[in-house]
Amino acid sequence: MKIHIRNGHVVDPANRIDARQDLFIAAGRIVAVGQAPEGFTANRTVDAAGLIVAPGLVDLSARLREPGFEYKATLESELGAAVAGGVTSLACPPDTDPPLDEPGLVEMLKHRARNLNLAHVYPHGALTVKLKGQTLTEMGELAEAGCVAFSQANTVVQDTQVLMRALQYAATFGYSVWLQPQDSYLAKEGVAHDGEVASRLGLAGIPVLAETVAIATVVQLVRATGVHVHFARISSAAGLRMIEEARAEGLKVTCDVSINHLHLCDVDIGYFNAHCRMEPPLRAQSDREALRRGLAEGRIDAVCSDHTPVDDDAKQLPFAEAETGATGLELLLPLTLKWAQEMKLPLSTALARITSDAARILGIPAGTLSPGANADICIFDPRADSRISRESLRSQGKNTPFLGLELAGLTRYTLAAGHVVFER
Amino acid sequence: MAKNPQLNANGELKHLLSIEGLPRDIISAILDTAEPFTEVAEREVKKLPLLRGKSVFNLFFENSTRTRTTFEIAAKRLSADVINLNVSTSSTNKGETLLDTVDNLVAMQADMFVVRHASSGAPYLIAQHLESTNRPNVHVVNAGDGRHAHPTQGLLDMYTIRHFKRDFTQLTVAIIGDILHSRVARSQIHALTTLGVPEVRAIGPKTLLPTDVERLGVRVFHDMREGLKGVDVVMMLRLQNERMTGSLLPSPQEYFKFFGLTEEKLALAKPDAIVLHPGPMNRGVEIDSAVADGVQAVILPQVTFGIAVRMAVMSMLARG
């Protein structure tokens, strides 16, 4: 299959391209940008006039819910949502049921994803067996089965000795460890940011301290073990500052933020809107501003959807009882564009955070339109507004605080490995 | 921010969910409406026909005898049919969700739900569900949700204060105890500040005060003697048994020593200060018996007024 994408405006942050160019694809790879290679005859021509041609998006965290939670979502529904949102590569956390702590489960997941032929799936292996924080998993075997990093999803290893050994063991083989920093005791029973809003609403608070205390511990362990730790979903200005200090010292730490935390804060909980129940919690407005600036300046490495499809029954509950998380695969692009527009950033900076920067953290060959690269491409209309509604979302999860919002950035075509896997 | 779910398009009371966000004139109207209802209790026949033919469901997901009873009496004095449901012991144990329970009761032609729930915000969820399923004539009264609000308690406290003190704008009021976990305290603070009380004090140890509580419009004291100086109204809070020992407080004895209301500490307040308590009291933990039974206590009038205030709320909702 040879495809010619013509008349589009190519934005490829990895190669600093931001110009009207044509793109030529053959045998699943990009063969040329600009001039057609000698003797190239396209089987299909995609007219991208007025559209942006970008690398397929890379999402650092998307829950696909398989195995175990098929009533919330399936691989088919969520990978369909991914490509509808221009996402061609995604990492999935290991908090399935059973968790991804055995090579067989990972192979099965990768196999099923491959057969669907939509987005590429990069599983995170569980750092500890059953994510219980007690026994190390067979990280070597899991890596051979296809795990690109190890994580506890949004659970924690309470026992710091186990945590240190897990980091040492991962460092032995050069694996990355992803940790969502939250001290489980300080966060105990908490459901919202500990501040004025939670005090008014009578919701048990999770103080910023829960994040900073956890980061402080992990930074010490990184210094001792030399492992690369990626802090997933940071939520506070104080937490970001500590990660910057660690980085300035030369430690191997990176971090990301979710699209929800870029746009929302605790005030958005309003009258107990359970769609705003997140992990970590939505924090104060000043935290949100710090995260927005941090991402703009590259002090936060990437932004992710933190896609978490939840069934209606688990959301239509009093705030504290509702399940955490929001659907996001189809919102990653529009919400990143909205952030960039509000911050007056060039499109290439915005796209870098969800393509090349994210790919670098995951260590995967993606997020670029270089000749020879996998032909994973997102072609979108930066102007077309679309209204986020239950009907417009392909994800099985209809849970998002952004329902009803008009957002620009509609994906028109998605190509994965050289095939058009989505178009509208 | 979503619109205030307890008011209709004309700004009238549709549900009573929280005192926060209620305009001062609605609070005053509730207190004024309650005034004549106190006399109904003195009559030979203690009934008014205002809710005749209406079905009021007391939907209690958390145990309560006193609040449920006073709501039941209030509804019956207004001639409503009252159905008591202790849901903690029935359907939700069989896996039925909160909203399924509500839908079933709506199908039985409920006109009003009086809801108590252990989770903050549960009555909002019900009110929003009634809205989205197009049931504009079914009303919700919050009878206490988690730590969030207990608006009828706050209102009956305001009624009691107005009865004894008349003018809110000249008062200093102290709220003492476990404010962190107290829905009563939150409702009191919002009611007092809305009615123009110039100084509301919050007194308690740091473990029992909510983060940023000052932003709710209160002055914080950790020394009870300091905080009681010159106050007109002393509002005590109940300390739950499970919080008396552990990581919040070392012991009930130590709590009583520093934050229990004794005659000696009460003497620091104005000589004509009144003492309120939402009940049930822990004598010897948050309040000394000599104070609870003393001349300054208005704890039993609170209970009486509570029925009139709940009648006022229910009649206003049914009318609206």
Question: Mind explaining what this structure looks like?
Answer:
The complex is a heterodimer of chains A (424) and B (320). By secondary structure, chain A is α/β, with parallel strands linked by helices. Helix content of chain A is 30%, strand content 23%. Chain A contains 13 helices and 20 strands. In chain A, strands 8-9-10-11-12-15-16-17 form an eight-stranded parallel sheet, with helices on both faces. A six-stranded mixed sheet of chain A has the order 3-2-7-18-19-20, with helices on one face. In chain A, helix 4 packs across helix 6 (208-225). The mean pLDDT of chain B is 94. Chain B is of the alpha/beta class and 320 residues long. A five-stranded parallel sheet of chain B has the order 7-6-5-8-9. The A-B interface holds A 194-196, 198-205, 207, 267-268, 270-274, 313, 316-321 and B 1-2, 4-5, 20, 97-99, 117, 119-122, 124-125, 128-129, 145-149, 183, 186, 210-213, 215-216.
Helix amount of chain A: 25-40%
Query: What general outline of chain A do the C-alpha atoms trace?
Result: globular
Domain count of chain B: the total is: 2
Please name the CATH topology of chain A.
Answer: TIM Barrel
Q: Roughly how many Å is the radius of gyration of chain A?
A: 21 Å
Strand order of the largest sheet of chain B: 7-6-5-8-9
User: How many β-strand runs of chain A?
Assistant: 20
In CATH, the topology of the largest domain in chain B is named Rossmann fold
SSE order of chain B in H/E notation?
HEHEHEHEHEHEEHEHHEHH
Q: Which CATH class of chain A applies here?
A: Alpha Beta
CATH architecture of the largest domain in chain B: 3-Layer(aba) Sandwich
Low-confidence stretches of chain A: none
> Quick check: average pLDDT of chain A?
97
Strand order of the largest sheet of chain A: 8-9-10-11-12-15-16-17
Number of helices of chain A: 13
The name of the CATH architecture of chain A is Alpha-Beta Barrel
C-alpha Rg of chain B (nearest Å) = 19 Å
Structural class of chain B: alpha/beta
* Sheet with most strands of chain B: 5 strands, parallel
Question: Please, what is the CATH homologous superfamily of the largest domain in chain B?
Answer: Aspartate/ornithine carbamoyltransferase
What's the tally of helices of chain B? 11
